[in-house]
Amino acid sequence: MTDRHIDPERAQFDAFKALPRDTLIHMLNLVRFRDKAAYPDDHPLAGQDLTGAEAYRRYGTESGAVFRRVGGRIVWTGTMEAMVIGPASERWDAVFIAEYPNSGAFMEMVTDPGYRTAVVHRQAAVETSRLIRCSPKASRSETGFG
């Protein structure tokens, strides 16, 4: 089994908070779902035989209002078709970029009580994930690529 990366570790979160806080940010999300959601035993959905994808949809539904309230929006979403460079065994079930007006908005979201309740669905749904903070560029010509 691969290493599980579900929530940020303290050092990763500290590195995120040390970056500029007043600029637009994009968060690249790569998510692999569990076959079966794994809720804590005391959660009402424990034993309901939900798939990881179903639990992740619940996470999106329940966290969506907070995400939008802080100014978040999905700027790109896609479906992984093939690994061209990288481990052949890696696959991602959800691939998207979320935009936030600044890192403070992201911090506000993840500390919101409603979000903290909803994130249990994400934790139950996800086998492993990557969340990569990116600084968006104004145009493709500035990057020197494509």
Number of strands: 4
Distance between the termini: 36 Å
Strand order of the largest sheet: 2-3-1-4
Quote the average pLDDT.
Answer: 91
Largest sheet: 4 strands, antiparallel
Low-confidence stretches: none
Q: Into how many domains do the coordinates divide?
A: 1
Radius of gyration: 16 Å
Number of helices: 5
Assembly state: single chain
The sequence of SSEs as H and E is HEHEEHHEH
Strand content: 15-25%
Q: What fraction, in percent, of the residue positions are helical?
A: 25-40%
Highest CATH level, the class? Alpha Beta
Give an overview in words:
The chain has five helices and four strands. By secondary structure, it is of the alpha+beta class. It has a single domain, classed as Alpha-Beta Plaits (2-Layer Sandwich), CATH 3.30.70. A four-stranded antiparallel beta sheet has the order 2-3-1-4. The longest helix is centred in the middle third of the chain and has 18 residues, at 52-69. It starts with 9 loop residues before the first helix and ends with a helix.
Task: Summarize the topology.
Elements: H1 10-18, E1 25-33, H2 52-69, E2 73-78, E3 94-100, H3 103-111, H4 113-125, E4 126-134, H5 140-143
Antiparallel strand pairs: 1-3, 1-4, 2-3
Defining traits:
single chain, 146 residues, alpha+beta, Alpha-Beta Plaits, 4-stranded antiparallel sheet, 5 helices, 36% helix, 21% strand
Short description:
By secondary structure, this protein is an alpha+beta fold. It has helices at residues 10-18, 52-69, 103-111, 113-125, 140-143; strands at residues 25-33, 73-78, 94-100, 126-134.
